[in-house]
Structures are given as C-alpha cells and as structure tokens.
Design a protein that fits this description.
Elements: E1 2-5, H1 9-16, E2 32-37, E3 40-45, E4 49-52, H2 54-60, H3 67-75, E5 81-88, H4 90-93, H5 98-102, E6 107-111, H6 117-122, H7 124-128, E7 132-139, H8 153-170, E8 176-179, H9 191-206, E9 211-214, H10 241-259
Parallel strand pairs: 5-6, 5-7, 7-8, 8-9
Antiparallel strand pairs: 1-4, 2-3
Length: 260
C-alpha cells in the first residue's frame, strides 16, 4: 500500500541542508515553493513524496478482521447505556465473569486480544463506538511484552496520558480507572519495567483529577512479593478465575463508590 505523506515545512528545509541559515538553494522544488509573506517565509506544499509504510499499517491492523471486527458487530446490537465500559487487551477480553463480578453495575466488555496502545489509539472510535458509560476501566500491558516492538515505560506512559486526555475531552467528568500491569512469569524479564511503569502511573493518577490508578497487581502476589502462579492460567500470563475474583474485590468497591 502506497500513501502520500505531506512534508512539514521543517522537513522541506532539511532536504536542502540549510537549517537555520541562508543558502543559494532555489525557492521552488519538486515538493513545494517558498514565498515571502508579511510575517516571513511561507512554505506551500505542492506535492507529496510516496512513502511505503504498508508493513507498519499491516501491523496496526493485524486484528481488524477478527477481534476488532467482532467489536464492530457487537456495537450494532449491544445496549449503549452502561455503568462501566471496560476496554484494553486480552486481560479484559478474557474476563468472562465480568458482569457477575461487577453486579449490580451494568458493564460492557470492549477488550480485544493482543491490543497495544498504538492500535488502541487507532481503534479508539471503533472500541468506544457510541456507548454511553458512566465510567471507564482500562488495562493494556502488551507494549511491555518482550515482542521486539516494546516501548520504554516512559513512552508507554505518554500513550496512556494521551488516552486519558482523549477520554476526558470526549467524555467530560466520567471517572477513569487504570489497572496496574500485573507481574507474571511469562514476561519475567520485563518485571522491572512493569514496576517502573506502575510507579509512574500511580503518581500521575494521584495528581490528575478524575483518574484512579488501581493496584490489582499486589493483591495477587505472594506475601513476600513474589509472583503467585496459582493466580494464573497455564500460560503464566493471564489471570485465572481466582485472579479475576481478587481483581473484582479491589475494583468493584471503588466503582460503586464513584458511581453511587
């Protein structure tokens, strides 16, 4: 797939190698021209350079034909009014007892398998569709999953922060609950990054109106702080029924308090 990406004015200057200085380069090129305006030089982009980013787009759209398509179809038949909209990655999608665990709150599960923050942003309108929740719960840990496309915890924080800002713009005054990343033996090599991210998010939430960081990680650890495999499925990544019950025991009272 070939797409045209419009060059920004700075990019046009870089092409001629004359950033921050005068030069003898022509004021018109294959991509645009420079005109002298009342407030200085004005760049007019006339054409686009073809850039092949099919691989990246295929990666972002990798779940479009299955999990994301299922979300589209469900949005056509599900009731849009709910108390809490849960979304994020497979740890949300696989929460099969969510409605039972959160009763009497009315919940809708909009998680999809393999979600990463970059495609959560891309699929934002598909995931949220035209649902009308009173609160949001979000979980996503695959950007620190050891896949070779991992972000640094501070980069991931920026993606979370942008998501919060989008939600607060589109759904004013709706409380947002961010679940901590769970430590697990499947991704034990990422544990310190998970720890750092959780600390950053906890501090951010403590200073951000309408955002609550929910530590669902510590309650499923052993008393000495080690990972308790009894709380996980055989993949040692996703929590099992017992693990979800612990999550619910922590989260449900917070939601009830916020929505009473």
């Amino acid at each position: 797939m070939k797409r045209g990406i419009m060059l920004a004015p700075l990019a046009l200057i870089v092409l001629c190698g004359c950033v921050g200085q005068k030069c003898g380069c022509p004021t018109e090129s294959a991509v645009g021209k420079v005109e002298q305006g009342a407030e200085g030089e004005v760049f007019h982009i006339q054409t686009a350079l073809p850039i092949d980013y099919s691989e990246q787009m295929e990666w972002v759209l990798r779940y479009d034909d299955n999990d994301v398509e299922e979300l589209r179809q469900r949005a056509e038949v599900e009731a849009k009014e709910c108390d809490v909209l849960f979304f994020g990655s497979s740890s949300i999608r696989l929460w099969k007892t969510l409605a039972e665990d959160m009763a009497p709150l009315r919940v809708v599960n909009r998680g999809y398998g393999g979600a990463m923050m970059r495609d959560v942003h891309y699929n934002y309108h598909t995931v949220l569709a035209d649902y009308s929740p009173r609160a949001f719960v979000f979980y996503c840990d695959n950007d620190l999953g050891g896949f070779g496309r991992d972000m640094h915890p501070t980069e991931l924080f920026d993606m979370y922060r942008l998501l919060v800002e989008r939600l607060q713009r589109d759904y004013p005054d709706k409380p947002i609950f961010i679940l901590s990343i769970k430590f697990n033996n499947n991704r034990i090599q990422k544990l310190e990054q998970h720890r750092l991210f959780n600390a950053i998010m906890a501090d951010y939430a403590a200073h951000t109106e309408g955002v609550t960081f929910v530590d669902v990680n510590t309650p499923i650890l052993n008393s000495d702080g080690s990972i308790n495999d009894a709380m996980f499925e055989q993949d040692r990544l996703h929590v099992n029924r017992e693990g979800y019950a612990v999550w619910a025991s922590v989260l449900r009272p917070m939601l009830l308090e916020a929505l009473r």
